[in-house]
Automatic annotation (TrEMBL):
<dbReference type="InterPro" id="IPR027939">
    <property type="entry name" value="NMT1/THI5"/>
</dbReference>
<dbReference type="Pfam" id="PF09084">
    <property type="entry name" value="NMT1"/>
</dbReference>
<protein>
    <submittedName>
        <fullName>NMT1/THI5 like protein</fullName>
    </submittedName>
</protein>
<keyword id="KW-0812">Transmembrane</keyword>
<feature type="transmembrane region" description="Helical">
    <location>
        <begin position="21"/>
        <end position="40"/>
    </location>
</feature>
<feature type="domain" description="SsuA/THI5-like">
    <location>
        <begin position="73"/>
        <end position="278"/>
    </location>
</feature>
<keyword id="KW-0472">Membrane</keyword>
<keyword id="KW-1133">Transmembrane helix</keyword>
<dbReference type="GO" id="GO:0009228">
    <property type="term" value="P:thiamine biosynthetic process"/>
</dbReference>
<dbReference type="InterPro" id="IPR015168">
    <property type="entry name" value="SsuA/THI5"/>
</dbReference>
Amino acid sequence: MNSQCFRFDQTTGNRPRHLRTFIHRVTGLIIASGLLFALGCRQSDQPPTVTAADQARADQLAVQVQLNWYPETEHGGIYQAQADGTYAAAGLNVEIRPGGRATPVAPELDLGRCHFAITGADDVIQFRRQGSKVVAVLAAVQNHPRCIMVQAACPVRSFDDFATSGMTLQCQPGRAFLDFLEQRGYLKQVKQVPYHGSVASLVTDPTIAIQAYSFAEPLLAKQQGVQTRQLMVSDLGWNPYSSVLVTTETLIEEQPELVRKFVQATRQGWQHYFDNPALGNAAVLDANQHGMTAEALQFGVEQMKPLAVPQDMTSQDIGMMTLDRWQTLVEQMDSLDPQRAGKVRPGDCFTTAFLGDES
């Protein structure tokens, strides 16, 4: 730095003009900083502004619900209730957690990582056999959408045809419906190979069959130019409730009011979804990162509604369950696995107390 910038003028005894200007500017900055500091301290003493929306969110009960698969039509009522404000109106702040392959539904519940989950009625029995105290509180779908899907051009028109067809079935090993089909001889001449969630093999090979849901895979095949036929497993008597909302015995005992609020709001969500699924489908589409389309969701809800609200029911009955249905399912599963027969009592698997229905 040039030393002359800060020397006294020998003739006047005063500081140079540029030095005086510098000092004035520094002094001004110091004063301004002090004022800002004082203002900041004064403002920090004031409480933060809380809006009505912030207070409403703070007053809501936090709820986590775990899905058993990627967000799809089978979860539409939950997304509808979140999107249209039904959960918020019930005082619930709901987090929906997408699932995927082998989502550990029962462990998530048992460990308290979520309050509720979606699964199938047969899975509830399996979970209870394994020691999990899972309880069904609402069944959105009365008639199960599980089917075996084949090309419409192939000669298989019934399960009797399928049993002797020599076809290859792409399926997920360990599923109870496969044990049911095998016990009744419908897979005796069928080769089973893993299913990876695609209709590609069926589209190109008429000797391929795949496990499917009647409100999903048929459209995927149609979009690729192939008409299909669905052999409904429920027609054979295997008909577990589907899209079942479950929780734990502990939550029911400790927070029954929370369970009641969530069950009733979820039921309303399904009623709204089947009446007008626009908001629910938009929310599912936004949450699904696995190639879901608006067309597939619309097709899904159109096919799913008759399964959820059969002809002998109304929308007011959505979610209902009966002891007879659970009794039948437990007996079927006991016959498939005699070594574990008797470990699960039908009445322990479900409750309709939060729906207001009689079991």
